[in-house]
Structures are given as structure tokens and as C-alpha cells.
Amino acid sequence: MGITEARWCDFVTYTFQGMVIKRIYYNADFVTTMLVKLEQFFFKHFAKYFKALPVPVEVCAVPTTGTVTVMATLASGISG
Predict the structure, then answer these.
(1) Longest Cα separation, the chain
(2) E strand spans, the chain
(3) pLDDT by residue (tens digit) across 9-30?
(4) CA within 13 Å, CB half, 40
């Protein structure tokens, strides 16, 4: 929702016992907090595994740090 700027979305769960639809509203404070935590988790536990993966030549031509740079830039402006 933060990317699409949607104010809400419907979370739908269906089981053999029935269906539940719950409206989830965008919460900027939650997103801010989670972005910081996700960035910390990524760099502490996950990023090291990317370095060990072989990268196809076609992918090497595309900047590989763009997404991480955006995440780091967004998170660096967040206090919390």
C-alpha cells in the first residue's frame, strides 16, 4: 500500500469452514518502523548470501544496488 498509495486493501482468507474478509488500512507509523527492522534484518542475515550466489552475465549489466540503495536512503531519513 505504501508503494501503490492505496489507503486500504481487503485481506481475504478462505477455508472449508468459511471466508473472512478483513479491511486493512495503511498505517504510516507501522511502515516506518517495519522498514527500519527489515533493513536491519536484510543486512545482518540475508545480504551475505547474495554475495555467494553466481550472477548471470545478463543480470550484471543491470545495476544491482539500486533497490538496496533506495531502501537505505528511505530508512536513513526515518527516525524511530
Answers:
(1) 50
(2) 8-15, 18-25
(3) 999 999 999 999 999 999 999 9
(4) 6
Q: Which residue has the cell 550484471?
A: 60
| Per-residue cell: 10 | 481487503
Q: Is the CB of residue 76 less than 8 Å from the CB of residue 40?
A: no
The pTM of the full predicted model, rounded to 2 decimals, is 0.47
Does the CA dihedral 34-36-39-41 come out positive or negative?
negative
Residues 6+ apart with CB under 8 A from 64: 55
pLDDT above 90: residue 46: no
pLDDT-based confidence at residue 59 (cuts at 50, 70, 90): very low
Let me know: does 24 contact 11? Beta carbons within 8 Å.
yes
CB 19 within 8 A of CB 55: no
Residue 63 DSSP one-character state: -
